[in-house]
Specification:
This protein has helices at 3-31, 90-100, 117-135, 147-160, 162-167, 213-223, 240-253, 274-277, 282-294; strands at 39-46, 56-62, 71-76, 104-107, 139-145, 177-184, 229-234, 257-262. With 297 residues, the chain is of the alpha/beta class. The chain has one domain: Alpha/Beta hydrolase fold, catalytic domain (Rossmann fold, 3-Layer(aba) Sandwich), CATH 3.40.50. An 8-stranded mixed sheet has the order 1-2-4-3-5-6-7-8, sandwiched between helices. The longest helix is centred in the first third of the chain and has 29 residues, at 3-31. It is globular. The mean pLDDT is 97.
Amino acid sequence: MGLKDILMKRSEKERLAFIERCIEWDTPRLENEQYPDGVSVSQDIVYDASAGTNGILDIYFPGGEKDHFEEAFFLIHGGAFVYGNKELDKNYGMHLALKANIPVVNINYTLMPDKDLAGEAEEICRALSFLHKTYGLEKIHTTGDSAGAYLALLTVFLCNDPKVREDLKIKTVPEVRCFSTGLICGGFLRNKNRFPGIYMDKDGSMPDYLMDLGKATVLSFGRTNCIPVSIITGDKDSMLRECDYYKKVLDKAGIANSYYKAVSAEDRVMFHVFPIAVPTWPESQKVIDMFVKNAGL
């Protein structure tokens, strides 16, 4: 057995254990979700029929549903690229729609290892192109948690920087522009030899800069207009160090950003992706307010 096989075997063991832990955590949480009033939900809209249930999305409308909207938040769930679906972020997305007073689009995408990063990026672009053609969407603000934060930041590049699409061999032009991003407990550094980074580049053609989104941001924003960035973490967040790293990259590059490290209270622990799990906490409401302000709404 070669080194690559050994690394993959180890990563597969970590992947399965991670999924098991997530299911154990998320199942009771989702069973007890209480969604806010005042939001209309258009559910399981097909944006890519070839992807099955992976190629669907929800739209959360403040008030009643609309058949045309030019601006929206674009929400991507986390799960280390290997786990999850849009239901994980539904409650957060509905609260965000209420505060922002614009629709929030929440997508499914094919998980790794069934697709690599380029495959997920292609699906994201297909979703955006579908929204542009179907609803007239032209302007987005991305948000996501954990691996979803990584993908939310990547979506900024996919929308605003044709060079990134070219480097990933993306064929679909998203046809929208991104104007801000709000990143919750993101992981911005990946290792190609470790879980989950080992699944990101199937054929070895992905540019190395996309394993370090600090470097990718400086490169891409150097070619395009910088947009406002909000970074969220907590004092008990497993991704705290990566969020600190990304904040320092932005500051050094002179890129406008807002940073919030929530501090645990006696009855509220600021754990990984806390605004997704409990969007009604005051700290989570502050996060949503930051993202709305960051978007200029």
